[in-house]
Amino acid sequence: xxxxxxxxxxxxxxxxxxxxxxxxxxxxxxxxxxxxxxxxxxxxxxxxxxxxxxxxxxxxxxxxxxxxxxxxxxxxxxxxxxxxxxxxxxxxxxxxxxxxxxxxxxxxxxxxxxxxxxxxxxxxxxxxxxxxxxxxxxxxxxxxxxxxxxxxxxxxxxxxxxxxxxxxxxxxxxxxxxxxxxxxxxxxxxxxxxxxxxxxxxxxxxxxxxxxxxxxxxxxxxxxxxxxxxxxxxxxxxxxxxxxxxxxxxxxxxxxxxxxxxxxxxxxxxxxxxxxxxxxxxxxxxxxxxxxxxxxxxxxxxxxxxxxxxxxxxxxxxxxxxxxxxxxxxxxxxxxxxxxxxxxxxxxxxxxxxxxxxxxxxxxxxxxxxxxxxxxxxxxxxxxxxxxxxxxxxxxxxxxxxxxxxxxxxxxxxxxxxxxxxxxxxxxxxxxxxxxxxxxxxxxxxxxxxx
Length: 451
What we know:
By secondary structure, the protein is mainly β. It has 1 helix and 31 strands. Strands 1, 3, 5, 6, 8 and 9 form a 6-stranded mixed sheet that branches. Strands 10, 28, 29, 30 and 31 form a 5-stranded antiparallel sheet that branches. Strands 23, 24, 25, 26 and 27 form a 5-stranded antiparallel sheet that branches.
């Protein structure tokens, strides 16, 4: 898993460092206390992807208590910095950050495990099935969370932020927007930020609930914006919270009110400071979770508060009903990518497939013939794969996904969220043609997970 982040480098000179990237040794496995089999190699390049020598690079193990021999190294003639990495005592994913002046960052990951147990025989096979479950300290202590959304912030809100909602056993009273921060980068280890008391908002009505959080970083005011949907029997109300540091959040502001369920799963994109704001949502009409057809719609805004009326898009999956959606602008490809979960026509929103589509304008979409994941991808998603999200590295060569799903156990849904990284080429190949693990499965008729 790798992600490299850098600010706008439009004014970079040929010799100025613009990127740092993990080029070898990423995503290895080692026993606790052992060194990784191969060293981690980072490369420093300029704005034209040429190697830059003589650049001081700071190395830091940001997740886990592992060790690197030197905390500061200088790039060689090929722009390379290489390091060994001894795994710490913490099981699971650990992260190693390489940074230049605390601005240009690359993150490598490795997985630790108990001695002699790095390659358990029970490991599932198939595309994306090596997903790592998140351990989230939800405010209700259930650890059950769904509808993840991740963003990379800057300035006082630097780092990776995860918005999600608890949903233990489908308990609507717990479904309220919560915030977590990566303890050292992107990945599978998240903590409640110091000073934050989740949930960030509570419903005002006894029969309502708050769902579908979507978080962005606004470069204009350097703030995190967290949108969410309030449900009542009459209305869908979209509101937004803002924070400069992820710890202190202002009062919510209502931005859109429509009849239920005409705006499900709002997904907001905010790019350059002078670019328009864009919002996609699913119009499920009055039937909501039992709709036989839904429409993906788009709205625009100049300030994030005042939004235009909805414009239908042509995003539709043959034979399927789209229920939730996440859209991201992939700058390296000059495209919007949409990730959306579906259920078969005639079913309910116990969704069983996750699809990927691409668009140059956000209105006209090219859909993929096959889902990138199905229910049953991992044991914890045996019955539902639900709203999911993703980010790409700076060159869109790698994709990291956070997926939510559920298993139907004892008359209740048990919800979990997991993460996995893959190359863009592999992801597109999965979407283009199903592999052995993606063969069609019978859709199991289950109770709807939402009212």
